[in-house]
Design goal:
- By secondary structure, the chain is of the alpha/beta class.
- Helices cover about 35% and strands about 10% of the residues.
- The chain has helices spanning about 5-20, 25-40, 70-75, 100-110, 155-175, 190, 200-210, 215-235, 255, 270-295, 305-315, 375-385; strands at about 1-5, 45, 60-65, 130, 195, 240-245, 300-305, 345-350, 355, 390-395.
- The protein has a six-stranded mixed β-sheet.
- A hairpin with a 2-residue loop joins strand 8 (about 345-350) and strand 9 (about 355).
- The chain is globular, with a radius of gyration of 24 Å.
- It comes from Citrus sinensis.
- This is GDSL esterase/lipase.
């Protein structure tokens, strides 16, 4: 960061030379007087980032879980049924929401197309990036993998391997194949934005694996170490601009609230489980700080999505939302409208009657979509706030995420 007095010193020198060349030097003298008086401002700091041009990201490469999966798990296994996708796509679109995700709004704001899932072989275009995220993905190797468990085989190590292969093979196709126009240019890999949103399922795997809150907390350092190792590997493959989301308030989600009764906070969220998420985020932030030190030529932005998401549960009416801890699309004999045996879009049987679990009437005012994931309205709310840089460390907006802030 640059102190105001340093910048003023340079401007003052310029004006002293320039004012003698102007037909009305008194105008420059007036400006100079204002600057001189301002130079006594005590500790004002100006970020050089704000004066620079926005980054020109030609592509996005995303790694993560269902919070940013645009069709990976749907291509590999059974895709989500209607009413998934009903709000924006008007049909299931591989996303575990009623519409778009934060990653979709990120791409849109950078004037890029929605990012195709790497695992989707039909109708895909990778010219401006690829999405390696799959729903149910973890950072560490899960102990229970689909179809014999609830977690994706495409955990972060595998996503890294897929990215490495994609980088090499896409250039072979670009140089030889008839699908050259569907592949990114070689220079895009160093100029692209690399986004990460993963970790929630590592915590969930612990909770649903009968680990205590204390045991899950004890596992966090190893989870973060494995995350950092993957980020370092991606850096070695040429990545330079990193946009890293922390994990959200897991204790506010119906699938936790319905399965793990515990002490509630003022927002109605499971306090012990949110404390675990906060601990994860603390360690993640420390890891990002260390990554900056290890790789000073790269830009690492840590993004606090937790705080933004939690505000939707703490004061939903302030932002036009309602019933934040109740699933919009679900069925359950509890206050959260959630049951793992009657999930959104699936066939359920109650008292001998079969029906398809449908959505609520107004997803646009709801926070939670299916007990685990957020609605498009909530995703847009979160994006609008994190993209400004107000919840970033350093406080850099999305469009400047290629810049390395100077830190005192």
């Amino acid at each position: 960061m640059l102190h105001l007095s340093i910048i003023i010193s340079h401007i003052r020198s310029y004006l002293l030379v320039s004012m003698m060349k102007l037909p009305h030097p008194h105008i420059s003298f007036f400006c100079l007087c204002v600057l001189l008086s301002s130079s006594h401002a005590s500790n004002t700091i100006i970020s050089p980032v704000s004066a620079q041009k926005p980054c020109d990201f030609p592509a996005i490469f995303n790694l993560g879980d269902s919070n940013s999966d645009t069709g990976g798990l749907a291509a590999a296994f059974t895709p989500p049924n209607s009413p998934y996708g009903e709000t924006y796509f008007h049909m299931p679109a591989g996303r575990f929401s009623d519409g778009r995700l934060i990653i979709d709004f990120i791409a849109q704001s950078l004037d890029l197309p929605y990012i195709s899932a790497y695992l989707n072989s039909l109708g895909t275009n990778f010219s401006h990036g690829a999405n390696f995220a799959t729903a149910s993905s973890t950072i560490r190797l899960p102990t229970r993998i689909i179809p014999r468990g609830g977690f994706s085989p495409f955990y972060l190590d595998v996503q890294l391997q897929q990215f490495s292969q994609f980088k090499n093979r896409s250039q072979i196709i670009r140089n030889r194949g008839i699908f050259a126009s569907l592949m990114p240019r070689e220079e895009y890999f160093s100029k692209a934005l690399y986004t990460f949103d993963i970790g929630q399922n590592d915590l969930g795997a612990g909770f649903f694996g009968n680990m205590s809150v204390e045991e899950v907390n004890e596992s966090i350092p190893d989870i973060i170490n494995k995350f950092s190792a993957n980020v370092k590997s991606i850096y070695n493959l040429g990545a330079r601009s990193f946009w890293i989301h922390n994990t959200g308030p897991i204790g506010c989600l119906p699938y936790i609230l319905a399965n793990f009764p515990s002490a509630k906070d003022s927002a109605g969220c499971a306090k012990p489980y949110n404390e675990v998420a906060k601990n994860f985020n603390l360690k993640l932030k420390e890891a990002v700080v260390q990554l900056r030190k290890d790789f000073p030529s790269a830009a690492f932005t840590y993004v606090d999505v937790y705080s933004v998401k939690y505000s939707l549960f703490r004061t939903p009416k302030r932002y036009g939302f309602e019933l934040p801890t109740v699933a919009c699309c679900g069925y359950g004999d509890n206050e959260y409208n959630y049951s793992g045996t009657a999930e959104c879009g699936q066939l359920a049987t109650v008292n001998g009657t079969q029906f398809i679990v449908g959505s609520c009437d107004r997803p646009s005012v709801r926070v939670n979509w299916d007990g685990i994931h957020y609605t498009e309205a909530a995703a847009k709310f979160v994006f609008d706030r994190i993209s400004t840089g107000a919840f970033s460390d350093p406080r850099i907006p999305l469009k400047m995420a290629c810049r390395r802030a100077l830190i005192d």
